[in-house]
């Protein structure tokens, strides 16, 4: 591995690091910033203005990056006693996250905008700006752990509390980015209620603020409606595995592989069982549905791999996570050229191109890649 001259040992007890705390306006990032101060670091808070039109307030527990959130972050910084700034990264966020999200759905893939935001915004645009201003690290409220090896290299590990682990959405970080990442919440086993109780003890008004869910730039949670406004309604057919039309839709981009609800299929399957989305073809605007068993995937090919350290040499056995809140499954994986070839020990369901696969060696994050193609177990069995 390659060490980075000047990279601070963020796990050491040394005090006095200059830390830029990314404060979303939520309870996790506020407590993380407070803990960094308590550890003796020189902390400055920053809220990222990611919306070009942040006039609307969050609805319930949905959304973030609103004016309300920036005000909550500022109030938290005041209570903690640290300087606070609001940085406008709306244009960069629109290009790297929102436009990428729309383009992926238009191409029939299912993206994860949180991974893209961590890769392109929080640990690229924000980190680059922080380092240029003389900061040593960026601190966030993610639940994950950075381990420093004896040779000074970094590893990303799962949080101590698996129930809150967020290492999946951080699997895009490379070693240089890990060298300047600080996650104060990752190495303590505490429930969310305990984090809120800590925030209340510290006098932080966000202690009782609801968590944000879904996609931050789709505050009402209506992804299909958001895409329809951007891409327009384009009617097409919903077909079964034989090619027979069983319904219609207003845009193939509004579906994802494994989806069951909202298909609006006029007649039931011959066996009376529910049908699921098996394939999305943007070329002819067709959605294919079929039985749940047809969703079983035995292997996949992924592209654009990013490694949290040195890329693995040769085939290896790992566990893989396919969703932010999904479980682990055992796989064998090998890097072939620029592609990651993965085979599952047992078939898995609901795997869609565009999703990220993150590989683990026990608790260590090996790296991640974007799923390009899948191999159906049923198709292989029928050969």
Using brief descriptors, characterize the structure shown:
single chain; 383 residues; alpha/beta; Rossmann fold; SH3 type barrels; Elongation Factor Tu (Ef-tu), domain 3; 3 domains; six-stranded antiparallel β-barrel; five-stranded parallel sheet; 24% helix; 28% strand; globular; disordered N terminus
Model description:
With 383 residues, this protein is an alpha/beta fold. The protein has three domains: 18-208, Rossmann fold; 233-294, SH3 type barrels (Roll); 296-381, Translation factors (Elongation Factor Tu (Ef-tu), domain 3), CATH 2.40.30.10. It contains eight helices and 17 strands. Strands 12-15-14-13-16-17 form a six-stranded antiparallel barrel. It is found in: Cytoplasm. Residues 225-290 form the tRNA-specific 2-thiouridylase MnmA-like central domain. Catalyzes the 2-thiolation of uridine at the wobble position (U34) of tRNA, leading to the formation of s(2)U34.
Biggest beta-sheet profile: 6 strands, antiparallel, barrel
| Uncertain stretches | 1-6, 56-63
Within the largest sheet, what's the order of strands? 12-15-14-13-16-17
- Structural domain tally: 3
- Class by SSE composition: alpha/beta
What's the overall geometry? Answer: globular
Distance between the termini: 43 Å
Number of strands: 17
Mean pLDDT: 88
> What is the succession of H and E elements?
EHEHEHHEEEHEHHEEEEEEEEEEH
The count of helical stretches stands at 8
Topology:
Layout: E1 18-22, H1 27-38, E2 42-49, H2 67-80, E3 84-88, H3 90-106, H4 113-132, E4 137-139, E5 144-148, E6 154-158, H5 175-178, E7 181-182, H6 192-201, H7 223-231, E8 236-239, E9 245-249, E10 276-281, E11 286-290, E12 297-307, E13 316-321, E14 328-336, E15 339-348, E16 356-361, E17 364-376, H8 377-381
Helix pairs in contact: 1-2, 1-6, 3-4
